[in-house]
Amino acid sequence: MASGGGAAARMDPEAATELVRKGSTLLLLDVPQRTLFGIDTQVFSVGPKFKGMKMVPPGPHFVYCCSSSRSGNEFAPTVGFFLTTQPSEVMVRKWDAQEERLINLSEEEEIRYSEAVRRFEFDDQLGPYNLDSYGDWKQLSSYLSQSAIERLEPIGGQITIALESSWMDKAPQSDMERRLMEQLRESKFAKNAPVQAERRGCYYTSIPASVKHKNVSGGDLTALNLDKTSLLESVLAKNYQGQEDLLLGELQFAFIAFMMGQSLEAFMQWKALVSLLLSCSEAPLHTRTNLFVKFLRTFYYQLKHGFQRTQDSRSEDVGSSLFLDEAWFSRDIFLYRLSKDFFTVVFEAPVVDGDLLSWARKLKTLLETTFGWDLEDNAVNLIDEDDEFAPVVVEMDGS
């Protein structure tokens, strides 16, 4: 069984042959049958011969496992980790039955197994990485560098809801978050999850919910909180050394850890970053247009993947679709109001960058067709490309 759409990018035979040669191998020892194993957008139910994956393209990946009960219909918490593979590299992990996760081997054992892989001793027990779905993964991880992963990942690298008990006690802010919490509390595995003495969360950037200034008048403070451009600028300068791609890398890291790794902490971080960006009106139109073109493209593919998984979920895929239920389609989700306000800013601007307008339209169409949301304001309804009052589209250099 595999999950994850593959129509995004078909790979030509030459490129596939090159990946057979340059692709890395992930050798996984002793993984029990019926365990849900995932790499990137692909999810499999482990069979009796499974010993891992071959032809894994070089670059960042997310590997995650979800052990099942003997009957195969109950799952332990997902445990996932990021890794970055080099061309022709062999990586070896072994299943720890007690902790129900993949662990590293000693260096000596890793060398021994790596040599066996290079002699093709495990070749018929390795599943090929589905190259048809590699295009999907690249869209979800385009800003995810090895340095970004190392900066954000927890000590030990393991991402799992079982280590996030502090999040369970936080007051949920919306119906969707409340339902996520309830799903976790009620699920059979949450009660049996190992209690950890120390919290091992990711090192996410702290995103303030609002602007606070001592020497600013009430009216100015309201304006600063309505348009969070100044907050975005301070976060970029303070936390990302002004590098926009680092922020986008964290957005992708959090989405992957939430979507594939079922991390509630990651969902909260993804929400915080999306909320900050969608609450800016000056930045997308004037000061950070290029960042917002990249953000809208990234956000579009995240939502497209998330919705696709909701619609493609099978009953046996319960381990990897825990978080996506009908709550995503609710109009009280934070995305509805923020998206509507953001689209108003872009579509009603007198001058707007062509790429920004194009991706905003694509995103709006996706939300309307997938959720059935009405994101039109009356003013926006009347906009016609030939209308003299329609926004002026200009192409900006470097976007």
Automatic annotation (TrEMBL):
Tree of life domain: Eukaryota
Entry's Gene Ontology BP terms: spliceosomal tri-snRNP complex assembly
InterPro entries: AAR2, AAR2_C, AAR2_C_sf, Aar2_N, AAR2_N_sf
Family annotation (Pfam families): AAR2, AAR2_1st
Domain AAR2 N-terminal: 23-154
Domain AAR2 C-terminal: 204-376
Cellular component GO terms held in the UniProt record: microprocessor complex; nuclear dicing body
Family: Belongs to the AAR2 family.
Protein name: Protein AAR2 homolog
Organism from which the protein derives: Panicum hallii var. hallii
